[in-house]
Structure formats: structure tokens, C-alpha cells
Amino acid sequence: MLDDIWVDDAVFALRPDFAVLAMTAHGLRNGPTDDASRALLAAAAEQASQPEKIDAWKDAYRAFGAKPQRTRPSVDALTRRLPLPEINRAVDAYNAISVKHALPIGGEDLDRYVGPARLIRAVGDEASEEALGQPEQGEVIWRDDVGVTCRRWNWRQVARTRLTEETTNAIFLLERLEPLSLEELKEAGEELADLLARFSPEVRIASRLVLGGK
Asked: For 154-164, how does the pLDDT look when each residue is reduced to its tens digit (9 = 90+)?
């Protein structure tokens, strides 16, 4: 799965500084929010003020025609929802890391993917869930062989691949723009891996960094 993930050159043309750290986690033991994951959210909320990183995502949205004040980058929307929402342990973990680093992160059920994840600029006829609406031509989207998995780069994910308490295999997409450094991206990935291992001691994690030209 990791080797087949790719980002279209048209996305790198839009933002040459874009990078994504893709992580797979096999053997998760997810479950409802508990005291440990609740504490992670509370600690992250105290660090939720890094506007320069969020502004970079707003600029990226404007570059493909989206209005970030109406459809906000995921990390912008998340930091406006304090206290942070309690979903389940795996989602709480990546939301905490997302807010701590002002870094958009998507987490999805790997077993519900059909084919590899890829980030493209939409043609406009891609299959999409009714609740998300149809992507516009040139919009940046994540998709698989079935259709859209996340609209407007990281604005909103489909229900089909949502992480649930029953999820045992997951994929996480940690998306970077400058001024967030590649070193901090790596650190965020390591922190997420450590949290997942804390909740699921037998989890097996692999990762791959995707950069322009690679």
C-alpha cells in the first residue's frame, strides 16, 4: 500500500513545498475515548496557536480556488473546536498530534480502501459521496479506485473510510507545507506512532515520506 501512494505533479506544481508522511498501522485495538486519550486532547489544546502554519494552508486553498473561510483546512477547523472533540482513541491520538504541530492529518480505515491513495487535482467527474458534493475541476482531492476519499486537500473525509472503534488496520496521512519543517514532520510521525503503540502494544507501523520528484 505505502509504495503505491502517489501525489500528482500538478499538486507539487501548485505547492512545491508539499510533502506527505504516509503511515500504516496494522493490528490496532481501537476503542472509545478513555481517560488517556482525553488527556492527550486536553494537553494538545493548550498548544493550539501556530497561525503561520495554518496561514500556509489557507494560501494553498486559495491557490486552487477554494475559500478557506468557508471550507477550512482541517487543522484550522480543528483548532477552532476547543475543547477538542472526543471521537475514539485512534482519532483522538491523531487529532492531538495535528493540533500540537498545526499539521493536517487524515486517518482512515485501510480495509475500506480500494486501490492506493493518491492526491490529484480533480477532473470534476470523480465519484463522491452525496454529503461531500462533487469536486470542482482543479480542486485538490485524495481519492482511491472507488472515488473521492477527501475533498479540498484535507477539508472533509468521506464516511466510507472513516476510522471507527472496530478499525484494526489504518492509514494516516500527515501533510506538510512550509514553514513546518521536514524534521518536525518526522517528529510528528514518531509521536503518533508512539501513541498508537501505547493504545495498541502489538500494532505494526510502517511509513513513507512522499516529496516532489520522488
From this structure: 999 999 999 99
Neighbouring residues of 174: CB distance < 8 A, sequence distance ≥ 6:
20, 21, 22, 23, 97, 103, 104, 105, 185, 188, 189, 192
In the chain, where are the structural domains located?
2-113+165-211
Find residue 210's DSSP bridge partners: 20
Looking at 1.10.287, 2.60.420, 3.50.40, 3.40.50, the CATH number of the domain 2-113+165-211 comes to 3.50.40
Q: What is the pLDDT of residues 54-110, one digit of tens each?
A: 999 999 999 999 999 999 999 999 999 889 999 999 999 999 999 999 999 999 999
Cα separation, 149 vs 155, in Å, equals 11
How far is Cα of residue 158 from the mean position of the Cα atoms in its chain? 12
